[in-house]
User: What shape does this take?
Amino acid sequence: MIFKEDWDRCKERFNAFWGGEVVDRCCLAVTSPRKQPIDLGISYKKPESLEQIWLDSELRYQQALYSFANTFFGGEAFPLFWVNLGPGVGATFMGSGYELAESTVWFDRNPVIKDWKSRSKIKLDEESEMWKTVWHMTELLCERAKNDFIVGITDIGGTLDIAVSLRGNEDLLYELYDNPDEVKTLADEIDTAWLEAYDKFQDLIGSHMEGYAAWMGLWCNKRWYPIQCDFSSMISTEMFDEFVAPSLERQARHMDYAVYHLDGPGQIRHLESILDIDEITGIQCVPGATFSEKTGEFHSTFYSETWIPVYKRIQEKGKNLILPEVHPTEIEDLLDCLSPKGLYISTSCKSEDEARELLKKVEKHYGK
Assistant: This one.
């Protein structure tokens, strides 16, 4: 791999990670600006419109190559282009509209389900504009990637997160009380379309690439995916068990490995329910950004009294633990209290020298 000289060693550590084991250290993905950029004869091209930012496949391909050529991928970091058309783009595959913005794509600005009696059954619509766009971009990248970079599946979204886009956040909250059976029927329909979309994209990627990846930055030689429910931060654990857990179990059972995206302290109350789903392989924890007196910066603080017990409980239950975008100053403290087995940490440094030094520190920590 042109952008990743030690890719074979990287895959070896990932294979151990998925098995809940360890080769020589935990999986540590470190990125930084590359000291000597790879000369591909490509210059960065700034998009001239919102449509170009999101929908121009050729421009995004060139931007990806430029980024890869200027990035140092240390440890288990690797060049990944996952087809980002906004978080929860799966809603557009099932009938929602979309609104482009500079930093994201919105899907919930005009919910299509106005009432239960008149709504159409939710199905996968391969004729939708966004499906065709995502499919074309994924196919194009797979054909061009060869062995130079990894192509990942798009961010389909969580079942009830998609339901929010289709029905509206406030209305869906009321529906949990007023029309619980209708919500469950909707979730079943979304799950069916979700799994169909997942299979089609994974089949496409699997026909071109070695292994599978997604927005979490993990690689696996078998099928896996991040599953989630950001909506769950607004509901009780009892409602989580009733409305969310069945979809998570259905999706996780459908793939070889599944990682739950636990986003923020509002979801900690659901931890035991998530851990009780045997098919879920691991949990990604995202504490949320706060001001750190240690660094003088705003960033996610992973090493804290709130989150350390969460990590330990996850590992006690034999689940993999994924900690994304950890500040480099926190990593050694985290390694002191966590098992390296099934542990993945990602971080970024300001220079390649700093990144390499961090990798050496982690290897020394484990006596390697």
